[in-house]
Amino acid sequence: MNNHASSTSDPALPDTPLHGIIGSGSAMSEVFQNTRQVAKSSASVLLIGETGTGKELIARAIHELSSRHERPFVRVNCGALSESLLESELFGHVRGAYTGAIDNRTGRFEAAHKGTIFLDEINSTSLHLQVKLLRVLQEREFERVGNTKTIRVDTRVIAASNCDLLELANEGLFREDLYYRLNVVPIRLPPLRERPEDLPELVTHFLNLYNEQNDRYVVHIDPLALAAMQQYSWPGNVRELQNYVERSVVMTTGDEFNLDLLPAVVRSGRQARTPGMRAMDFESLTEELVFRGLSGPESTDGNLYGHIVDRVEREVIAQVMTSCSNVQIKAAAKLGINRNTLHKKLKQYGLDGEVK
After folding, report:
1. Is the pLDDT of residue 51 over 60?
2. Which of 106, 146, 306, 353 has a CB 3.0–4.6 Å from the CB of 94, allowing a cystine?
3. What is the DSSP code string of 328-351?
4. Is residue 1 in a domain?
5. Are residues 164 and 39 in the same domain?
6. Are residues 254 and 324 in the same domain?
7. Residue 21 buriedness (CB in 10 A; 0-12 / 13-18 / 19+)
8. Is there a domain that residue 91 lies in?
9. Do 130 and 58 fall within a single domain?
10. Per DSSP, what are the bridge partners of residue 330?
């Protein structure tokens, strides 16, 4: 998908689609209107939406429609780096600041001077780092790691979160003052399940994209396939749809995107899993436990409930660890348990070899 929006001379009506962003339904119209309106200002923006809803696309559009569009747009994935590496990435460091710092390094805030910095997954930052982010937002200044020289910057901040920051603040996991400083203008990006009217346009777009990339000619969309997709809840949002369309173009030998090309979970018409959790079929799980001799009339303990609870707990812990980039202190905080308890459970469920 084209990530670039048009410049400040964009003549479109406020609620018409932004260049390179697909969606003409009512759910996206409000997003387009808010994006164009906030782009004219210098206010901080908080983009709220599930993974795969296009938060980076909107951030880029805000930048391209603003008076800063000729200056850098710098993206930082806060969830991909440890606390120490993220601090250096954002603010830079001087030679000798820590082991491995062999040269001075310019941080992302300096690189985005006069432009825009996009802080993706801001919810994953530590409380220590949030203090420094608050200072940049309020005072427009900071120091590189290992240095006392104050650096001033003029950088617009756009942050994004896939969870409720105010809820995290109430739990003591996110600074409330930083939340309000970021949340000057919030824009909620609707999940794909709330915009089924956009599916035909999105499918057509991705078909054209992957037809060209793979020298294919899949140009017809089976109405049954479209109906099934409009009933599915798309936990992975547009990214999940994009993946299924690419797979279908690659695997089919015909010219039709039909129902048989979609995964069983989409074809079945069943409600998909909620974001962050895999669907757990109780009957299938019971059958598996009986097969393994862990429940049923011939089991050694008959503790079906306990085994199911263990399986669900293992699943939750594994997924939270993944969402926290395998950082145990973050995962423990998100789960509401202490780190020692988490460490014991990782060993109990055999996850200590899978995650850090």
Report:
1. yes
2. 146
3. HHHHHHHHTS-HHHHHHHHHHTT-
4. no
5. yes
6. no
7. buried
8. yes
9. yes
10. none
Q: Phi/psi at 156 (nearest 5 deg)?
A: -80, 135
Assess if residue 7 is contained within a domain.
no
Contacts of residue 196, Cβ cutoff 8 Å, sequence gap at least 6: 229, 230
For residues 267 and 285, give the distance between their C-alpha atoms in angstroms, rounded to a whole number: 22
Mean pLDDT of the chain: 82
Q: Which residue has the tokens 């109906």?
A: 227
In the structure encoding, which two tokens stand for residue 318, read together?
């594994």
Tokens of 310: 């263990």
Compute φ and ψ for 74, nearest 5 degrees. -115, 125
- Do 45 and 158 contact (CB within 8 A), yes or no? yes
Best-predicted range by mean pLDDT among 17-31, 161-175, 283-297? 161-175
Tell me: do 37 and 179 sit in the same domain.
yes
Phi, psi dihedral angles at 209 (to 5 degrees):
-60, -50
Q: Is the pLDDT of residue 17 over 60?
A: yes
Cβ atoms 243, 249 nearer than 8 A = no
Measured between alpha carbons, how far is 136 from 131 in angstroms, rounded to an integer? Answer: 9
The domain boundary residue, chosen from 128, 158, 190: 190
Report the alpha-carbon distance of residue 189 to residue 53 in Å, rounded.
6
Looking at residue 49, its pLDDT comes to: 93
By the 10 Å C-beta count (0-12 exposed, 13-18 middle, 19+ buried), 138 is classed as: exposed
Q: Hey, how many other C-beta atoms are within 10 angstroms of the C-beta on 347? A: 11
Indicate the DSSP class of residue 23.
-
Angular region, 48: left φ>0, alpha ψ -120 to 50, beta rest: beta
Residue 142, SS3 per DSSP: strand
Helices 83-91 + 127-139 axis angle, to 10: 20
- Is residue 146 situated within a structural domain? yes
Number of domains in the chain: 3
Examine the fold and report which residue of 212, 236, 267 is the final residue of a domain before the chain moves on. 267
Map tokens 């950082």 to a residue.
327
Verify that 239 and 332 share a domain, yes or no. Answer: no
Q: How wide is the angle at C-alpha 278 spanned by C-alphas 272 and 282, nearest 5°?
A: 90
pLDDT at 182 over 50: yes
- Asked whether residue 185 falls in the same domain as residue 46, the answer is yes
Compute the Cα dihedral for 53, 56, 57, 58 and give only its sign.
positive
Q: Which residues constitute the domain of residue 329? A: 282-348
